[in-house]
Design the sequence.
């Protein structure tokens, strides 16, 4: 039997374990020391729970392994389900134990495949097959420390490997577990992540409210004035993607439906998602680190204006006291030397210029 590892015990990671178990697999669950408390509790309980509707179902006999060498040294297939700003720590702790034969799928990616490949090169390690999904494989949340609830059922997802020439191999391996379709490359995947469209304006322009009272984002933070900002940023991103020759697969037309009051017919599962409740939430740290710097740097390289993304990045950097453009996932920081759409597409296709 193949040895599968899920790296990340948040909602997405636990949903991955649940799905893989339903398919007859027995994945190992790993996470960084920051989440040892949850791993220990899953181990103590013998599993975790899923509650969709009324019934709370236990997913039991979950294999937990906090030691990276034990978790990864014999791994065949690895799902990485961690926020982007923890990927570097993951690589520093785990990359030397990942076998060259392994295949790695990151969900969602946000250009993490390039980060992974560059780190393997830096350590002079063989590079495994690496790719990413353009959105989360599961839209779920933790309703308590050990209980996940699904917002949407799993759907088909676009994905790409880095280099993109390896995408067919990636789909051949991970298509056993999910319905995957080929994207042009990992940058097209990253720009089609819906979080980039909605999270920055909704979280950054509601900082005072969130700082004082917390929030349920989809209930509280995308009122019509915020929606207007989301639409401006989205349209700038569409222009950016058009210049790159990419297909746009996201839409912001469903925001009024997501904002719909939960007491209307059918309820609204998005309103059950709690957070952000403070300024350390991933809607800040992840989008300011991985989402906005990527969009702004791409706009500079190919000469396409992204003034809303730049404004939100400036506001976030000032409010949180960090220069996220300098620290974040820009093309320069990713080690991508391309200076035109053609050079960039060629680099992502072949892994080099």
Sequence:
């Amino acid at each position: 039997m193949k040895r599968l590892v899920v790296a990340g015990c948040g909602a997405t990671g636990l949903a991955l374990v649940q799905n893989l178990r339903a398919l007859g697999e027995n994945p190992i669950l790993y996470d960084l020391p920051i989440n040892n408390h949850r791993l220990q509790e899953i181990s103590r309980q013998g599993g975790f729970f899923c509650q969709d509707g009324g019934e709370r179902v236990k997913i039991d006999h979950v294999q937990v392994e906090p030691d990276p060498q034990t978790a990864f040294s014999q791994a065949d297939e690895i799902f990485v389900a961690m926020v982007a700003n923890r990927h570097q720590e993951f690589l520093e702790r785990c990359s030397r134990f990942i076998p060259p034969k392994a295949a790695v799928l990151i969900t969602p990616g946000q250009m993490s495949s390039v980060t992974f490949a560059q780190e393997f090169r830096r350590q002079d390690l063989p590079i495994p097959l690496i790719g990413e999904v353009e959105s989360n494989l599961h839209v779920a949340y933790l309703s308590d420390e050990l209980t996940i609830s699904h917002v949407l059922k799993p759907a088909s997802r676009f994905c790409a490997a880095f280099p993109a020439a390896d995408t067919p191999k990636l789909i051949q391996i991970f298509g056993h577990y999910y319905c995957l379709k080929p994207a042009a490359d990992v940058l097209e995947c990253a720009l089609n992540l819906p979080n980039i469209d909605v999270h920055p304006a909704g979280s950054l322009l509601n900082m005072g409210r969130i700082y004082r009272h917390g929030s349920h984002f989809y209930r509280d933070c995308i009122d019509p004035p915020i929606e207007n900002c989301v639409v401006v940023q989205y349209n700038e991103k569409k222009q950016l993607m058009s210049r790159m020759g990419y297909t746009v697969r996201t839409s912001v037309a469903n925001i009024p439906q997501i904002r719909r009051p939960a007491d209307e017919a059918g309820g609204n599962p998005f309103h059950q998602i709690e957070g952000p409740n403070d300024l350390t939430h991933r809607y800040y740290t992840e989008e300011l680190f991985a989402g906005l710097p990527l969009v702004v740097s791409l706009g500079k390289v190919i000469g396409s204006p992204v003034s809303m993304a730049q404004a939100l990045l400036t506001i976030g950097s000032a409010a949180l006291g960090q220069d996220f453009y300098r620290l974040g996932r820009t093309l320069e920081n990713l080690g991508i030397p391309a200076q035109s759409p053609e050079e960039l597409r060629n680099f992502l296709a072949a892994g080099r210029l």
